[in-house]
Amino acid sequence: MIVWGGLDSGPSPLNDGGRLTIDPTLDRDGDGFSACLGDCDDNNAAVFPGAIEICDGLDNNCNGLIDEGTDDDTDGVTSVCDNCPTVYNPGQENTDGAGAGDACQLTITFPLLATDVDCAGAPPTIQWSQDLLEGFNLYKVFIAWDASFASTKRVTSRSTLLKKTSFVVPVSKWTTACKNANPNLFIKVFGKKSSTGKSSFSSVVSLKVK
Fold first, then answer.
1. Phi, psi angles (nearest 5°) of residue 35
2. What confidence score (pLDDT) does residue 21 get?
3. 2.60.40, 3.30.200, 1.10.150, 3.40.50: CATH of 106-208
4. Which residue, of 5, 86, 113, 139, has the greatest Cβ tally within 10 A?
């Protein structure tokens, strides 16, 4: 901001020895720092000296670096941008588009599209991420023809929990599910850690079958 230091009398400033100066206190974005105090982008309130660095392609803390930070899991992605910062996952896979990556949550990875399944063809092999963060090692698959997953409107994998991250749907169960589809089928996976009993469900995948 340029400030006129002279006097103004009428429509024209007087030539009385005034001078142009920079206002060192001007804070355009209201973040508490002016450009003279080190704000490297005084039009963005998320950028100022000492700000917490976040993954946004900006130098939030005005230290000359962008999205910097530690890489705790040594996967080549700094923790501020890593979708699972405590588990090695250089590919940053995030099948369901949620905030956490596949390595940090139980996520169905197949099928995801209606074209992945065909009631007139062979049953699909349902696959999911392991959730390395929680350490799940036991699983159960649910296939329902109603979003409620009511016990009378679903089929499941065998009663014994699965010890792998895939399940080939038996023909009889697939036939039952397809017969009742109207026209959607809903799939979710239950995961459990045997040593602690901790468990959770994956997000539901909804498929319009043919």
1. -60, -35
2. 59
3. 2.60.40
4. 139
